[in-house]
Amino acid sequence: MTFTPRDMVRFGLTAALLGSTSLAACGGQGDDAATQVNSSSEASSDTSQPGDAGEAGYAGEGGESGEGGEGEGGENGAHGMDTLPIENRLAFMRGHVAAGLALYRAGAPDQAAKHLLHPVSETHAEERAGLDERGFKADLFVEISNALEAGTASEEIEDKLAEAEDNLSVLADEVGGSSKDILNFLLDTTLEEYRIGVTDGEIVNAGEFADAYGFVTVAEDYAGDLEGPAGDSVRQELGVLKAMWPKAPLANSAPAPVDQVAAQISRVQLELSGVN
């Protein structure tokens, strides 16, 4: 039987996951070893190490609350918005909006506000470079933010929320780019922000926990462009990943362990590697 490089990667991932399960079942020294395996899984998925997790809740979300970045030391600097291609900047913006819409529709406008203001915040102006002339409706997002501040229920402006989603989706079609590359960017960013949002099984930064959910939600949209069985496999694994969050990424959620999220992101990216 001939093994391709992708088969070998898949075999290695499966072996690591099975090894982790076996060690955990043994107890004692096995627990320590399982911890090492899980740590290795996280490191292999994302070699970059984020800074301090920041305060729990939304206190650190800048731009919308203090003009100082987004809780992890400033997303603009962390992600190099001035050097990212426009399609990645748009995907990043869409992730924030998706998080905000989910929270707003779940009846948490206080948690949603900063995410929905993100596209028009002066702090994140670099993200919008080149989008206004392509049809970005900044006034629409300002209108939604004003409705939030006024205490308007999401059902009352659902048409505006749907219009905002559609505006960003149309922009994505206009901007173009490789869906595969955008997906890898979103998945890497998901893990970065989830690690900031969750520590020792607790949500320590609800804003980043919610953003990670938003990036996965948007990834599902981009994955719709993938063709063939490989595309189907990516969409299936993305569905498993998204199910690790509740229906909405509320601040009082019980988060999935970071190592489990990291392992599932690795599975998605493994399937994505088979897309031409």
From TrEMBL:
Residues 147-174 form a coiled coil. Residues 1-24 form the signal peptide. It comes from the Bacteria. Keywords: Coiled coil, Signal. Residues 28-82 are annotated as: Disordered. Residues 57-66 have a biased composition (Gly residues). Residues 35-50 have a biased composition (Polar residues). The keyword Mitochondrion does not apply. This is Lipoprotein. It comes from Henriciella mobilis. The lineage of its organism: Bacteria, Pseudomonadati, Pseudomonadota, Alphaproteobacteria, Hyphomonadales.
